[in-house]
C-alpha cells in the first residue's frame, strides 16, 4: 500500500490527498499524457513532483514509471529525458506555438540547456543570441536517436534502431547493408 496517506503540500501550494493524485495520474497515463496539474489552480506539476505526492513505495511506483517511459519513447517530438538527470523534459513552444530548438532542465543544478534534436549541450554566445548546438554531428545523432526500430521479429536485429552510423566514416547505414564508403570496412 501507500507509504503514507497524509495530506501533501503540492508545488503550487495547495493541499492534496495522495489517493486523489494517484487517480489523476492513472487517468493521465491512461490517456498517454504527461500533463499533470493541480485540480484547484491548474498549476503544472513535473513528474518528479507528482512521484513525491503519490507516496508510493518503489515497487508500487515501478509500473507507473514504465508507463511514463513508454509515453516518452512513443512521443519523441514532445518528450525526452534529460541526459544528465533523466527527468522528463517537455519541448517548449514559443508564443506562436513553434517548438524551440533547445530545452532547459530545471532539475539539474545549475539548470542546463540541451539541443532538442541530439541532447548535446546548447551554447549561448551572448544573452541576446538564440544560441546553437555544441554538437557538429547534431543532424546525424538526431536521426540515429529518433529513427524507427527494426520490427521484423525474424531479424537478428529485431528491436534495434533501423539506422546506425558507420564506425569509420560515420555515414548512416541500415542494419541490412554495410557502408558503401571506400574508406570503410564492409559491415554486415
Describe what you observe in this structure.
It contains 4 helices and 12 strands; from the N terminus they run E-E-H-E-E-H-H-E-E-E-E-E-E-H-E-E. The chain is an alpha+beta fold and 188 residues long. Residues 183-188 have low confidence and may be disordered. A hairpin with a 5-residue loop joins strand 1 (8-9) and strand 2 (15-16). It has a two-stranded antiparallel sheet. A two-stranded antiparallel ribbon has the order 3-4. The protein is globular and about 65 Å long. This is RING-type domain-containing protein.
Number of strands: 12
Shape assignment: globular
Strand content: 15-25%
Major β-sheet annotation: 2 strands, antiparallel
Q: Give the radius of gyration.
A: 21 Å
Question: Helix content range of the residues, please?
Answer: 25-40%
Q: Based on helices, strands and strand pairing, what is the structural class?
A: alpha+beta
Could you tell me how far the N terminus lies from the C terminus, measured between alpha carbons in angstroms? 51 Å
Quick check: average pLDDT?
A: 85
Helix and strand string, N-terminal first?
Answer: EEHEEHHEEEEEEHEE
Count of alpha/pi helices: 4
Protein name: RING-type domain-containing protein
Key phrases:
alpha+beta, two-stranded antiparallel ribbon, 4 helices, 12 strands
Give a short synopsis of this structure.
This is RING-type domain-containing protein. Helix content is 25%, strand content 17%.
Amino acid at each position: 500500500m501507500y507509504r503514507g496517506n497524509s495530506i501533501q503540500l503540492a508545488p503550487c501550494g495547495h493541499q492534496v490527498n495522495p489517493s486523489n493524485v494517484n487517480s489523476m495520474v492513472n487517468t493521465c497515463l491512461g490517456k498517454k499524457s504527461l500533463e499533470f496539474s493541480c485540480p484547484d489552480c491548474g498549476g503544472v506539476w513535473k513528474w518528479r513532483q507528482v512521484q513525491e505526492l503519490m507516496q508510493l513505495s518503489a515497487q508500487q511506483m515501478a509500473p507507473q514509471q514504465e508507463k511514463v517511459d513508454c509515453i516518452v519513447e512513443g512521443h519523441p517530438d514532445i518528450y525526452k529525458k534529460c541526459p544528465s538527470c533523466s527527468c522528463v523534459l517537455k519541448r517548449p513552444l514559443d508564443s506562436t506555438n513553434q517548438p524551440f530548438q533547445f530545452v532547459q532542465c530545471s532539475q539539474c543544478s545549475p539548470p542546463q540547456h540541451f539541443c532538442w534534436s541530439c541532447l548535446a549541450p546548447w551554447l549561448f554566445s551572448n544573452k541576446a543570441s538564440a544560441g546553437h548546438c555544441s554538437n557538429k554531428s547534431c543532424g546525424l545523432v538526431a536521426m540515429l536517436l529518433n529513427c524507427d526500430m527494426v520490427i521484423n521479429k525474424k531479424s537478428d536485429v529485431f528491436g534495434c534502431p533501423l539506422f546506425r552510423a558507420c564506425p569509420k566514416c560515420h555515414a548512416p547505414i541500415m542494419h541490412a547493408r554495410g557502408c558503401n564508403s571506400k574508406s570503410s570496412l564492409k559491415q554486415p
